[in-house]
Amino acid sequence: MDMPVPDTRLTTKGPTRTLAEFVAALTLDQVDDFARHAARRHTIDTLGAMIAGATQDATQSVEKAFAAAGIGVGTVPMAGVKQRYDALSATYVGGTAGHGLELDDGYRAGSVHPGGVVVPAALALGAQRHSDGKRFLTAIVAGYEAACRISAASHPRARWRGFHNTGTAGVFAAGSAASVLLGHDADQVENMIGTAASYAAGLFTFLAGGDVKRTHPGHAAREGLLAALLTESGLLAPRGALEFKDGYFNAYAGGDTGAVDYSAIDLLAAGDNHPKSRFAVANCYMKPYASCRHIHAMVDAVLDMAAADGLTADQVKSVEIGSYRVAAAHGGVGWSEMTTAQMSIPFVVATALHRGRVTLADFGEAERADTAIIGLAGRIATDVDAECEEIYPRKRGAKVAVTRADGSVLRRTVMEPYGSASKPLTDGAVAEKFLGLAAPRLGQARAEEALALLWRVDELDDIAPLAELLAA
């Protein structure tokens, strides 16, 4: 429907309008083959994380809360979930599940997890509206663009204000994906952005413990979808909501300080691109380890020492790690809960040294109480390295020095961890990760059938049967 525009609304073109016009005009034919394949890969990767995360404590808490409130029951399936919900509730559950195990993808330049907000919203609405696969994949590309570019324009200023970009910028990502599926024009997309801006939320308080972080993508995905549906239903919102005085960038990224003129930024150029594509989805990373991405370069370093130099945990006298400030902040995080353990440099690096891996199985209660790992974690120190800080967020680097009991020192510098766009997982590794996460929940045959469909999702006439196949 056409949106009436009151005279009091801003009309100056800026980053909000730029994003709105991009989302409204995007078709899959405009997306190069490299980015199109990346969109398939990241959809598969996210769905695997969602299916595996459907049984985690935070997801079950959400489902229990919905049941207690008497809301949510409907007909919309969600990956890995038994209960059918309304589209909004299905999206919340799916987003929470996808982020719950620290296995979801991300965009380094924006320190954001786009898949966890984009894929659940697109899957829920696409299944409800019986969208075809071509439009579904277009929605994925649009959602990733919104998540990555807005976060890159905000980072790291938003982080130092205490905001989690996945929860805040995620509303615009989910809303953009939904707007594509709903066929919104540029005025409607800008209206969606104006509504979604009021729903952005998510603080870094999770570093102190608890499971609330897991729900950030769920909340953002639901609220972004709601903003798109409210636009479809005629609710009016302000224009220019990203950049005007009382808008998103001023509130979340320090625009009020005058350090950045957000009204003048080229939003679609924020962050960085893969050499082969201009679309942000092509430059996102996938996680080979079940921990915070800021720690992955350190894990790469010690695993390489083990493989190349025969380093074993009992040889380690001390470990000194230098990295960028955002990462180094995780050096003081404890491991009393799975949530914090996956964010803790000492625990994760000690786990890699002691077990030669960092998997979901390494964060259980018994593993967190393992005296060998705890003792090793106490010998790991983290500080800010000037070179790593200078190149961040262009790269997520770490320098690791391990002093052995005999006094010898092993050193590694990893400036880009495994799983990044420049060091990507192969298609075979993406498939293996998906099946490893999905098969225990869906069964091997269903997981393989779903994977085969996902590799050609843009050829499907209706994604609803695929959504049913992915549900538990």
Automatic annotation (TrEMBL):
It comes from Neoroseomonas lacus. One of its GO terms (molecular function) is lyase activity. Pfam families: MmgE_PrpD_C, MmgE_PrpD_N. Gene3D superfamilies: 2-methylcitrate dehydratase PrpD. Residues 289-455 form the MmgE/PrpD C-terminal domain. Belongs to the PrpD family. This is MmgE/PrpD family protein. Residues 18-256 form the MmgE/PrpD N-terminal domain.
